Amino acid sequence: EPTVRTELMEQIPPIAIFLHESRPKFPTAFFEYVMPIVVRYLTDVNNQVRKAGQEALLILLEQDLVAQSDIENKVCPILLDLSAPDSDDEYKVEAVNIICKMASMLSRTTVEHLLLPRFCELCSDGKLFQVRKICAANFGDICNAVGQEATERLLIPKFFELCSDSVWGMRKACAECFMAVSYTTSPEVRRSKLSPLFISLISDTCRWVRQAAFQSLGPFISTFANPSSAGLYIREDGTLSIRPSAQDVNSNSCQPSSNITLMSSSASAA
């Protein structure tokens, strides 16, 4: 019964945590018995079971309970098979979604060598716009996961493609994550490539794309600032924040810095 398998998947994370805490008594139980079940259920015929398996996998990765060898040799090959060009549409959409979500939890080397090539292929998937939209919505997270060099070499060309996609929802998703993409690139790429691209979004024929671009304008501009002098930085959750400079921290609290006050107002307006 699918409901039994779904319930089982929901119990996997607490079982894994227990086995991890009791490793001296059960040194190989998780890797021999539990992990194979999670991997197998990623391809279950029932979508609710697959969804429960995906959620369990993400929790295990977040808790750092899965060995690097299992990620590379068991999990990634399954996801690559499910997201292959000839894969079933429903499986492919689910696979690209889980790839995007787990990218931030894996090592940069694993993401760049195993998952990034497939992600780039999926960005150009001409069959399913849902696949391209998931890629666009998570583009900033992938850039952050692989770093500046891979972003500029492999991802920026794909970002240009998505920003000119015929489906307006794709262009809107790109506008919404523009700051995160910009933050990962060098000042030169930001100025010479991303600025003209952003202008095209802010002048888009669809008002929903233009609205999303205008909402991202302030955050995008902030990526041009020097963090050491402006105090602007990106938190781990991708939000823009302000770090007071040492001079402001040491100054008299009765005489607040006009620079910080101005930035706070600008950030609020953005």
Automatic annotation (TrEMBL):
HEAT repeats lie at residues 115-154. InterPro entries: ARM-like, ARM-type_fold, HEAT, HEAT_type_2, PP2A_Regulatory_Subunit_A. The keyword Nucleus does not apply. The keyword Translocase does not apply. It holds the Pfam family HEAT. Keywords: Repeat. One of its GO terms (cellular component) is cytoplasm. One of its GO terms (molecular function) is protein phosphatase regulator activity. It comes from the Eukaryota. PANTHER family: SERINE/THREONINE-PROTEIN PHOSPHATASE PP2A 65 KDA REGULATORY SUBUNIT, WW-BINDING DOMAIN-CONTAINING PROTEIN-RELATED. This is PP4R1 phosphatase. It comes from Orthonyx spaldingii (Chowchilla). The lineage of its organism: Eukaryota, Metazoa, Chordata, Craniata, Vertebrata.
